[in-house]
Amino acid sequence: MLTTILAAGAAAAAPKGDNPYGLIPALREGGLISQTVFGILVLMLFVSLYILFTKLFEQQKVINQHKRVLGSFWNANSLREASAKLEKNSAYKQIVDDGLSAQDQHSRLTDPVEAHDWLHGSLARSEASINSQLNSGLAFLATVGATAPFIGLFGTVIGIYRALIKIGAAGQASIDAVAGPVGEALIMTALGLVVAVPAVLAYNWLQRRNKSIAEDLSAFSNDVLGYLASDGAVRPAVVARKGAAAPKPAAATTTAAR
């Protein structure tokens, strides 16, 4: 009964226009547990957004590099010349340089290894390194999507528990006694969903883009392997730009099978 009287008095003493059941009052009333749950969910949300935008920037950078490679890379006289024209930190430059390095190293091997197998392994490691970098951070998004609803549910359980305590102390289920804790519980539930749903959507979207990029990298790596294994005789057919003269056909246009 005393708790009900104090709650009613606090509501009456609140300045006109203030909401005694808003987010800040609910968190203040919820104590350390509710404030900690709220802080964890907000932190998850901001880190998820940071990962989303940074990964989109990285992916778009690689996609733009692929467009430039398609436009002019295979017009060069040699792989070294073509590699020199690529950006310093280009993913495609990394694949070419790793392939050329593997070709140089093969002649110094004391244990005989097939050149195709040696080049294929080196290019595959280069692809895996790039894909691993693109996929970094996505595990956090998956974790947030899986755990945020349960963290919010924990805050909900605490809010309902506090509401039941207030009902027991007051001896009756009055609105004044349970409005604060129940409102706090609903806020935690909603916040858990607000954090989880964008994280899951971002994870699926980024994964799909990474898959497309990985396919482009694999195709380019296969072309590089064919070029190196044939000493330049096998290279992709270059499509002439509109208004430009068509290039002379290469000795072969099929790429080596990986």
Could you describe the 3D structure shown?
With 258 residues, the protein is mainly α. Helices cover 75% and strands 0% of the residues. The protein is built from seven helices and no strands. Helix 2 (23-72) runs parallel beside helix 7, helix 4 runs antiparallel to helix 5 and helix 5 (115-135) packs antiparallel against helix 7 (175-229). Mean pLDDT is 78; it is low at 1-17 and 239-258.
Blueprint of the fold:
Layout: H1 2-13, H2 23-72, H3 79-84, H4 91-106, H5 115-135, H6 138-170, H7 175-229
Helix pairs in contact: 2-6, 2-7, 4-5, 4-7, 5-7, 6-7
Shape: rod-shaped
Give, in order, the helices and strands: HHHHHHH
Q: Residue ranges: pLDDT <50 for 5 or more in a row?
A: 1-17, 239-258
Alpha-beta classification: mainly alpha
Query: How many helices in DSSP terms?
Result: 7
- Major sheet, described briefly? none
Outline of this structure?
With about 260 residues, the protein is mainly alpha-helical.
Highlighted features:
258 residues, 75% helix, mainly alpha, disordered N terminus
